[in-house]
Amino acid sequence: MAVSSFIEKLRQSITQESFIKLSLGNYQGTENGLKQIHVKLVSIKRELHLSFTLRYKTKDITKNFAVEDGLLQITEYLSLGQFKVATLFTANANVVCQMNKKGEWSERTEKATAKKTQAMSHDVQKQRKIGSANKPYLHALRLTDQNGEVYNAAQDKWKQINHYVELLSSSLNNLHSEDTISVVDMGAGKGYLTFALYDYLNNELKKKAVVEGIEYRQDLVELCNGIAGQAGFDGLHFSQGTIDAYEASCKLDVLIALHACDTATDDAIYKGIQNQAKLIVVAPCCHKQVRRELELVKAKNELDFMTRHGIFLERHAEMLTDSIRALILEYYGYQTKVMQFISDAHTPKNVMIVAEKREINTEKQQEIKTKLQELKVYFGIRTHYLEKICGF
Questions:
Q1: Where does the Methyltransferase domain lie (predicted)?
Q2: Tell me, what CATH number does 339's domain have?
């Protein structure tokens, strides 16, 4: 009886627009790792839905239901005793439905403690720039099952893919080209992000784009080409090769290199500068070249106390290396942004440099040259690899 009364009050709160949120706690079911569920209202394609966030020990999973389906799901959870307590937060009161040790449900009303939010946007959906997960290439890459549901073990990768496209969405949307947009992704690996980028450009932004993934491992090249063919992605192709050996066969609009090790990031940036790419995106990995310079010279300055400790020296080398990279890109007329990037699980590196082509300013070039020289003298760097290959 108490459960039925609780569900009816939940239904009324939604109808009367006083509903704020619902929590289900004290889980006693059989699903491993599940702790609690939080429910909120969202608007999807202008229709109300109940959005369930299932909180596990190590991850969160979101599922969306039409309102009536969501109410049925909540009723089932409580009727089966899978959750022992449910709390409804409304603008007027909190309603608690709880099962005691005898298996009996009771209901009580408490003072309202939650504030009603202004918007009811579907924030999870907004983050998914590539849209639905129910796509053949995602299944072929073993991120989703046959029904388009993301595997539990692939949740982090799925978030990374969407965050990656989200970070680049503004820059990609600003690309103006009457012709086909040409993209090269250097060090594509298994192609998760390469496929997502192609999908986003062609199917979400409706821009005609061809994407080439460069990967040294031939088995991954063959795998990705096979998946691209099965998905009908005619403008996506993977080639075996290295960053330093790459030669563009046509104009290059976008160059991407994620987690290219040490000076391979510089090689990628140089290729982009050479080809006057409209957009250069790198997520650097390893910063050995500048660290070796710092260790060799051991310059005496006001900050030398920071580099006595290995971990600080490493971080210092990272910041210095990428700051110089950003300056050199600005020298060649690029507007740069440095942001945090959700990194691959196998590396802690999470900095992304996004550079958009603008006009070259000769006065600013001289200022940058002076700044670079001052930086090198102050920190005891004889040369930066990107500076060297650019011919400074």
A1: 156-292
A2: 3.40.50.150
